[in-house]
Amino acid sequence: MTSVQAAKKALRKSVEEKILKILPEDKRRQSSKVCEKLFEHPAFKNSERISVYLSTDNEIDTEPIVRKIFELNKKCYVPRYNKNVMEMVRLKDMEDWKNLPLTKWNIKQPDLKETRENALETGGLDLIILPGVAFTKKGVRLGHGKGYYDKFQSELFKIQSKRPSTIALAFKEQILDEIPTHEHDVTLDLILFE
Fold it and tell me: What are phi and psi of 148, to 5 degrees?
């Protein structure tokens, strides 16, 4: 294991422990503030095709974002993981969101057997809202270690002429001064936190 991988692994563990200590009401307050900031941001306002992760209890709550996307008649795409591949597939409405099955990691995800519109095949994305374990204010992201978003973004950048905006949502406890990086790590446009 390289020193960068080892450093990332140790960092993931320490940040995940910090997140577990955040009180539920504090998570709700921070989520609410972050969503307000997102809704006011031009990248959100001007986007029609938006991908958003479906949150767990230890992430900024994205249900209000999914709801807002539908209220504004924008198109909502969510991650669907299959082995080493992540695709962004379209959600129809809030009813569709409510009925999504849970994966073994307790994350809502469209069923793999279902045929859904894939963002890469139907015009790409204007905005990608990403999760992560830790971030710097300069846009460096430490993911969960599988490289799904880095691979997805590099695929998207190859086929889409206009690069989408990339915004991560974070608890303030996830903001660090420095994160070790590999050459394939993609820097984000913006990290939103309280």
Answer: -55, -50
**Type and span of the H or E element at 80:** strand 75-82
Helix (H) or strand (E) holding 76: strand 75-82
Q: In Å, how far are 45, 67, 121, 132 from 149, measured between CA atoms?
A: 23, 23, 17, 10
- Whole-number Å distance between alpha carbons of 109 and 164: 23
Q: Which two tokens stand for residue 78?
A: 């969510």
Quick: pLDDT tens for 26-65.
999 999 999 999 999 999 999 999 999 999 999 999 999 9
Q: What is the DSSP letter of 172?
A: G
How is 94-158 classified by DSSP, letter by letter?
A: HHHHHTPPB-TTS-B---TTS---BGGGTT--SEEEE--SEE-TTS-EE-SSS-HHHHHHHHHHH
**DSSP reduced 3-state for 46:** coil
Q: How would CATH label the architecture of 3-192?
A: 3-Layer(aba) Sandwich (3.40)
35 phi/psi in degrees, rounded to 5: -65, -40
